Amino acid sequence: MTNTRKTNTFRWNGKILSILEQRDLPHKIHSIACRNHQQAADCIRQMSVRGAPAIGCVAAYGLALAAREKKYKSVQHMISALDQAYDTLAGTRPTAVNLFWALEKMKAVWQNGHANDPAGLAKQLVQKAMSLHEEDLQSCHRIGEFGAALLSPKSIVLTHCNAGALATAGHGTALGVIRTAHQKKKIKKVFVDETRPYLQGARLTAWELHQGGIPYEVITDNMAGHMMKTEKISAVIVGADRIAANGDTANKIGTYSLAILAKHHHIPFYIAAPFSTIDLNIPDGSHIPIEERSEKEVAFVGKTHITPKGAKIRHPAFDVTPAALITAIMTERGVIEKSKFKTLNSKS
Ligand code: MRU
User: Fold this and answer.
1) Given the CA of residue 172, which atom of ligand 1 is nearest to it?
2) Is the pLDDT of residue 3 over 70?
3) Which residues' Cβ are closer than 6 Å to ligand 1?
4) What is the number of structural domains in the chain?
5) Given a cut of 70, is residue 5 above it in pLDDT?
6) Rounded distance from Cα 77 to ligand 1 centre (Å)
7) Are residues 63 and 169 in the same domain?
8) Are residues 36 and 136 in the same domain?
């Protein structure tokens, strides 16, 4: 399946992983060339690439790079370097489970022990990373089809953060649903939460919708309730970083408040995510590690310092929406209604 966007979130050319520098979007479009796993890890940590499925794919390529970045004397020598690279990549961001899911898929390649020489193992790892990349792109298109089928013509959708092509291998999850629904002429308008403090909505989602010719309006996060009350919003659709076995869902900070607002206004609240985002090892959302990021990201808007010097600041980057507030989860295997969340275990 091909990614129809002109600007790829990341691209593997057989030797180098190019990562679109999302910190400079939408005003500057340029990429970072990663030649080793440390550079891939830095891109994830500093959020040059972000979004749960995208960081999973980049971590997978990071291990493929680790397999090629030195001359290894033996498969065993390569495996000890891969184990270290695994730890480096796993230590970048804690919340999105797709990162660990992808690393585990890659680790299975060197643990199955089928390669006789370092070059053979490196080749297998590159192939595995490419297949995870392709799998994510296909999943997004399927999520788009299943999700769009739930929307009526002239839908007004509200979304949060960026769960678009920039957050995945292409097309997007929540934005994939919106994109597919727009192709089917079902979208009247999208309200885009700016998503303080990192502004993924205002910078990235608005950019993607603009490129796709999809009608949208950016709102500040605190306008969502007013818009739900006055603008006939048909659905809220967001992505996810980790879904616990009971359906509790971690996503960008502010998602939980939106789910409460949606319930009050009787607006369906959908999560769009691939199965790689579901963590069956944890029974509920209280076990999801929540990343705390730098206070600078709250204290500054761009280069402007907005708080008093020395102000105490908190910056949890994610929150957990209880399953009870979620109408359904749109996945690549179909839509799972709230009443079926207990079957998440049997579906994987
Ligand atoms: O901190 P970010 O930008 O990586 O957070 C991203 C989100 O919260 C997305 O909604 C989520 O990863 C889903 S992306 C398809």
Assistant:
1) 15
2) no
3) 50-53, 96, 161, 163, 167-168, 173, 200, 239-241, 251-252, 317
4) 2
5) no
6) 35
7) no
8) yes
For strand 328-331 and strand 334-337, is the pairing parallel, antiparallel, or unpaired?
antiparallel
pLDDT-based confidence at residue 233 (cuts at 50, 70, 90): very high
End-to-end, the C-alpha distance of the chain in Å comes to 23
Domain of residue 265: give its range. Answer: 144-347
Question: Are 69 and 183 in a shared domain?
Answer: no
> In angstroms, rounded to a whole number, what is the distance separating the alpha carbons of residues 184 and 186?
6
Q: What is the pLDDT of residue 160?
A: 98
Whether 195 and 343 share a structural domain: yes
Q: Which of 100, 122, 141 is the last residue of a domain?
A: 141
State residue 342's pLDDT score: 84
CATH number at residue 86: 1.20.120.420
Task: Give the Å distances, CA to CA, from 334 to 122, 298, 326.
Answer: 35, 37, 16
Q: What would the pLDDT profile of 276-335 be if each residue is shown by its tens digit? A: 999 999 999 999 999 999 999 999 998 999 999 999 999 999 999 999 999 999 999 999
Residues 248 and 270 in one domain: yes
What distance in angstroms lies between residue 52's CA and the mean position of ligand 1's atoms? 5
pLDDT value for 4: 46
- The last residue of one of the domains, among 95, 121, 141, is 141
Whether the predicted model's global pTM rises above the 0.90 cut? yes
Ligand 1 midpoint to CA 80 (Å): 31
Domain harbouring 245, CATH code: 3.40.50.10470
Burial pattern 106-118, b for ≥16 Cβ within 10 A else e, equals bbebbeeeebeeb
Task: Find out whether 166 and 20 touch, Cβ atoms under 8 Å.
Answer: yes
Q: Is the pLDDT of residue 345 over 60?
A: yes
Task: Report yes or no on 2 lying in a domain.
Answer: no
Alpha-helical runs (H) found in the chain: 37-45, 52-68, 75-90, 97-111, 118-148, 174-183, 206-212, 224-230, 255-264, 296-299, 344-347
Mutation pick for ligand 1 pocket among 137, 161, 249 (CB with most ligand atoms within 8 Å): 161
